[in-house]
Design a protein that fits this description.
By secondary structure, this protein is mainly α. It contains 28 helices and nine strands.
């Protein structure tokens, strides 16, 4: 897979905090008031870090009172007085949580970090107080038991099913003693997963590779050196060059720097994040997380955490995941070994006699790519300005769905670099508000993701527009140069924009079913399918334009890109699959882990047959996706969804890239439907048949 998936992270709020409603009080805390802003966006210019704690205290109290009142109703349980009442409860808590969760990920500070740590166990206890409320579950179960006689429509039935299963899967059917154990597990997990993520951010920010000799930067472009000089100045190292563990810094360094010793230094820092024996060490934490998840799964009646998670996924069970991963691993590792052989030959042809190491791979792979295809990343970057790529994504959405994107000036934002767009239909009807936040900073966690400040829903039959945000860590502008993206970063922009479309175009009644409220292995379809347009030669000609001359990318460069299309896919696929297998191994344990995280990872990779020249894309101690980001037993989702996206794009290629019939079918059956139907059913409604894996194998050159 491409590098844009390395740190991809996607926030999906849990159902108990997704319902919003206006609170009419007026206070000096902007989080507690109705947002008096254009389109009801958060008043970021008024919100201060100290506002969150009292806002949470008030919001939690309100939600408790609402839930207690539903549980205390003496009338017979109905869909309206129980299921809808629960869906509509917690409005203030949702509003506060949306803002806090986004800001603590994209522009955190010591106050927010401390509050995040303090809140984690409190929110876990709050969820448990709802899920383990016997009177409340009794009412939900009563409605569930009579579902066939209620005359509910499909969306209402899905809301009822989700509500009932959420209670059961969160322990509502357990006895009192087991409920007490579950509460303790949930509290511990909330604390540990929060710590894990904060440690990764701290470790990422802690390292600086400071270079004071320009000769040591041989191989790096002038643009890379200028960016490193700006970073050095910002960090108080005037006249020097600084490289960090931000993806936009470390990866180009590993790809182009001639100095092998410096590559080793930054690589060691990168791969040892969270494993340095300091206060930010995650080794023991992640083992405890994995063991607690097993204990919780067993308590709820599942043999492993993976069985628990996958029950609600498109994949259904671990057997199907293992079949997928094993089927891809064999051709991928064979291709990776062939690539490793080529790299070793390249090392030897340069008169060197060392064995290739992981910190050599990107460097020598780039040299081989240049030799075979006369294609250099630096040759491509001038054609991928951030502004041009973003407009390219907007144009694709316009041609597919008729959407228009209008920049909004003067809107409140949480950081000066954030930009805001109004998204509308061709006839001017408001679709939603779209925030974009593209550049790295120390207050932002690594990766790229989409989230919401408000989800789409309907009120009295009227569609309420969502407020969506894309957050990335792209190469920033340097001096007078605009932000110039790598080809992978361009793909990342399209990828996250696909997630944004899933949130923006949602058209359902209930917030807890809207937008990206789908299974993990289905949520990547709308994002990954967009990458196909980013890479298509005809589309490239429309948006990849030289930042100075405005000339479209030449056919000769596109031809090189196509020729090199599957180059390096052995490495990319194996690097990704290694992490997916590691995730799978952590979450299919049937007895507690008694060895160190390092020993567990080593055994997992040896069993898989990973070669020494490659490490997992995410090593255990900085694997945010599974130990902090909600993808536990779900990292396979990207490759699962890639089967879907390759097949879905084939539907367009069979007709036309912008075929209206196909685009409308994708919008109406995938993008607008959220979680109102089962994913497999939605896909069959779009495509007419189940996805064919042959398209993925061809795309990756593994057929």
């Amino acid at each position: 897979m491409n590098n844009k998936r390395i740190f991809y992270i996607l926030t999906i709020s849990t159902a108990f905090i997704v319902s919003c409603d206006d609170t009419r009080q007026v206070t000096d805390n902007p989080l507690l008031n109705v947002y008096d802003t254009p389109n009801g966006v958060p008043p970021f210019d008024q919100i201060k870090s100290e506002h969150f704690k009292p806002a949470y205290e008030e919001a939690l109290g309100q939600h408790r009172a609402e839930v207690d009142s539903i549980a205390a109703i003496t009338d017979a349980p109905t869909f309206e007085n129980t299921i809808l009442a629960l869906e509509d409860a917690g409005q203030l808590l949702a509003r506060v949580s949306y803002v806090f969760s986004n800001l603590s990920s994209s522009t955190t500070n010591d106050t927010l970090k401390a509050l995040d740590t303090e809140l984690a166990p409190k929110l876990a206890a709050h969820r448990d107080n709802i899920s383990l409320n016997d009177e409340l579950f009794g009412r939900v179960k009563a409605v569930w038991d009579q579902r066939d006689s209620l005359g509910l429509d499909g969306e209402q039935l899905m809301l009822l099913e989700r509500s009932y299963k959420n209670f059961v899967r969160n322990g509502a059917s357990l006895g009192d003693a087991d409920k007490a154990v579950l509460r303790e597990i949930n509290t511990q997990l909330a604390e540990l997963t929060t710590q894990f993520g904060q440690h990764v951010l701290a470790e990422t920010n802690a390292f600086e590779l400071v270079v004071d000799n320009e000769e040591a930067l041989a191989g790096l472009s002038d643009g890379m050196k200028a960016a490193a000089a700006e970073t050095a100045n910002a960090k108080g190292h005037d006249g020097k060059w600084v490289f960090t563990l931000s993806n936009s810094s470390v990866m180009p360094f590993l790809q182009f720097a001639d100095n092998r010793e410096l590559r080793l230094q930054i690589w060691e820092a990168y791969k040892n994040r969270g494993a340095n024996g300091n206060d930010n060490d995650n080794s023991d934490i992640l083992v405890e997380i994995a063991n607690l998840r097993l204990k919780k799964a067993n308590l709820l009646g599942y043999p492993t955490h993976a069985h628990y998670v996958l029950e609600e996924a498109m994949a259904e069970n671990p057997t199907n995941i293992k079949k997928l991963l094993d089927g891809l691993w064999k051709p991928a590792i064979a291709k990776a070994k062939a690539e490793a052989y080529d790299i070793q030959k390249e090392i030897e042809s340069a008169g060197q006699n060392f064995q290739a190491q992981p910190y050599d791979w990107r460097y020598y792979s780039e040299k081989i790519r240049q030799q075979r295809f006369s294609l250099s990343e630096e040759e491509l970057k001038p054609y991928f300005s951030l502004a041009g790529v973003r407009q390219g994504a907007f144009d694709v959405a316009n041609k597919l769905y008729g959407l228009r994107f209008k920049p909004l000036e003067g809107m409140p934002t949480y950081h000066p670099e954030v930009e805001v767009y109004e998204v509308s239909e061709a006839d001017g009807t408001l679709v939603g508000i779209f925030y974009v936040d593209y550049f790295p900073r120390e207050s932002k966690r690594p990766g790229a993701w989409m989230s919401s400040f408000r989800r789409q829903y309907k009120e009295n039959g009227q569609r309420m527009a969502p407020v969506i945000v894309n957050v990335c860590n792209f190469t920033p502008p340097v001096g007078s140069l605009p932000a110039l993206l790598t080809f992978d970063e361009a793909n990342t922009l399209f990828h996250e924009f696909g997630h944004a479309l899933h949130g923006l175009l949602s058209d359902v009644s209930y917030r807890s079913l809207s937008g990206t409220s789908v299974s993990r292995d289905f949520v990547e379809l709308p994002s990954q399918v967009m990458e196909n347009w980013a890479e298509d030669p005809a589309v490239l000609k429309t948006y990849a334009k030289h930042y100075e001359s405005g000339e479209a990318i030449p056919d000769s460069l596109i031809a090189k890109l196509e020729s090199a299309g599957t180059f390096g896919q052995g490495f990319a696929t194996v690097e990704y699959l290694a992490s997916a297998i590691l995730d799978f191994d952590y979450h299919t344990i049937t007895s507690p882990i008694t060895v160190s995280a390092q020993a567990f990872e080593k055994a997992s990779m040896q069993k898989a047959g990973l070669i020494d020249e490659i490490i997992p894309r995410h090593r255990s101690t900085y694997f945010n996706h599974i130990f902090s980001g909600g993808y536990s037993a779900g990292y396979y989702s990207y490759i699962w969804a890639e089967v879907l996206d390759a097949d879905a794009f084939a539907a367009f290629k069979e007709t036309d890239l912008y075929d209206k019939t196909t685009a409308n079918a994708f919008r109406q059956n995938i993008l607008e439907k959220g979680g109102t139907e089962k994913p497999a059913e939605l896909y069959r409604k779009f495509r007419g048949v189940d996805p064919d894996p042959v398209h993925l194998m061809k795309k990756r050159g593994l057929d």
